[in-house]
Write a structure and sequence with these properties.
Layout: E1 3-6, H1 12-15, E2 20-22, E3 26-30, E4 38-42, E5 48-54, E6 59-65, H2 75-89, E7 101-106, E8 115-120, E9 123-128, H3 131-135, H4 137-148, E10 154-157, E11 174-178, E12 184-187, E13 190-193, H5 209-218, E14 223-227, H6 233-240, E15 245-250, H7 253-265, E16 272-276, H8 279-285, E17 291-296, H9 308-325, E18 326-336, H10 343-357, E19 361-368, E20 386-392
Parallel strand pairs: 1-4, 9-10, 14-15, 14-17, 15-16, 17-18
Antiparallel strand pairs: 1-3, 2-6, 4-5, 5-6, 7-8, 8-9, 10-11, 12-13, 18-20, 19-20
Helix pairs in contact: 2-4, 5-6, 9-10
């Protein structure tokens, strides 16, 4: 087992259970670990701190254990079993539920940094964000088969766009176990078609489940605009909640096609229109007062800190356009999924947008990711989704 020794005083964050070790905290390495290999970590004084996956980059080790220097034969089954137990406690992973899709593993939030697994009605879709998790896929699949038993029909690996491409890995998406042709899921009783093979992320944005339900609660009798609609999740919920009409906008023709199919699947085609257009340009040109409720859910404008300034300006411009167009007494649900944009910075960007437009805006609610996208209390960086529910006079 290769060993990593930290500089004096740099073990404090590890003793507080933060799962990342940065390269600047390392004094020496005993052995020549390859990327993705499990290494033992020691303090400068020689105390064992745990073990984790070695990787090239600013984050040199992602810790898997704070008590052992090795990964046991039962590690994956025990860890994934705990993840499933928590989802059962949340009421998600149980028979007869009206929701059969959820996140099983949320990286650092579940003590498995670099790993995402989503459950779609019998199919697990896996994304490895580190070489270590990519190399551990066979053990992960075996553990999934044990914890789910016969209810697991397939495991699909979609790591080609998330695993480090410089690590010399064979990055090809495909089934690691079984094969599933079924792609229809239920969320809070609503039906959706999910394309995990060619769609974005793992196929569906599970992190907006509770926020979609909130939109349903407020949509009755309203004219709704869903910007960056992807596959129409918010649109379906708004129509189910009694919206007079919903317009869905996305620049992706494939997303619009799936949106239309999901709307039809739920029986709401008579009150829905879709537009394959740039969402920002659409809202800028929309007639004033044409919409009573807007959903503004763009993709991440900043994926690293170097893009933070431009991202905040983009959030301000987008929200200014929405605030200027919504009808008096209208509601806006606005979001940021950029991890480097914290809650305060996002709120300030929206505040600046309201000030720019000159309308009175109130914050009715602060929104976040759901419980199955859990945040490790020792790793607050995992809280990436933030949103505001606004009332515009």
């Amino acid at each position: 087992m290769n060993k990593v020794f930290l500089k004096k005083g740099r073990e404090d964050s590890i003793r507080r259970f933060h799962p990342w070790i940065f390269s600047g905290a390392i004094a020496s390495v005993e052995g020549e670990p390859s990327e993705g290999e499990v290494v033992s970590v020691f303090s400068a004084g020689g105390d064992l701190l745990g073990c984790g996956h070695w990787q090239i980059g600013s984050i040199a080790v992602r810790l898997l254990s704070f008590t052992s220097g090795t990964i046991s034969d039962t590690f994956w089954e025990e860890k994934l079993g705990k993840c499933l137990e928590m989802r059962k406690a949340l009421g998600l992973a149980r028979e007869g539920n009206n929701t059969d899709c959820y996140r099983l593993v949320h990286g650092e939030g579940d003590g498995l940094p670099g790993l995402i697994i989503d459950w779609y009605a019998g199919t697990c879709v896996l994304q490895a964000h580190s070489a270590g998790m990519f190399l551990a896929r066979p053990q992960i699949v075996e553990a999934l088969k044990k914890i789910y038993g016969s209810s697991l029909k397939a495991v699909y690996d979609k790591s080609s766009g998330t695993a480090p491409f410089k690590a010399g890995l064979d990055l090809q998406d495909g089934y690691l176990f079984g094969k599933s042709s079924a792609s229809q899921v239920s969320e809070n009783g609503h039906r959706f078609l999910v394309d995990w093979e060619t769609g974005q992320k793992t196929g569906f944005f599970l992190d907006q489940r509770e926020n979609r339900a909130l939109v349903e609660r407020y949509a009755a009798g309203k004219r709704v605009l869903n910007l960056f609609c992807y596959t129409g999740g918010f649109s379906v919920y708004a129509l189910a909640g009694g919206a007079l009409s919903v317009d869905s906008v996305d620049s992706s023709a494939k997303a619009i096609e799936l949106t239309d199919r999901n709307i039809e699947l739920n029986g709401f085609s008579d009150r829905h229109r879709s537009f394959c257009q740039d969402a920002i340009e659409f809202v800028k040109k929309a007639p004033k007062d044409a919409y009573d409720l807007m959903i503004v859910d763009p993709p991440a404008f900043a994926k690293h800190r170097g893009a933070l300034h431009n991202a905040l300006r983009a959030y301000q411009r987008l929200n200014a356009a929405a605030i200027s167009r919504v009808a008096p007494g209208g509601i806006i649900f606005t979001f940021s999924c950029s991890q480097v944009v914290d809650k305060q910075a996002f709120a300030l960007a929206v505040f600046s947008a309201a000030a720019e437009v000159g309308r009175h805006v109130r914050i009715l609610d602060r929104l976040c990711q759901p419980a199955d996208h859990s945040v490790n209390i020792f790793h607050p960086e995992g809280e990436y989704l933030k949103g505001l529910m606004l009332y515009v006079e």
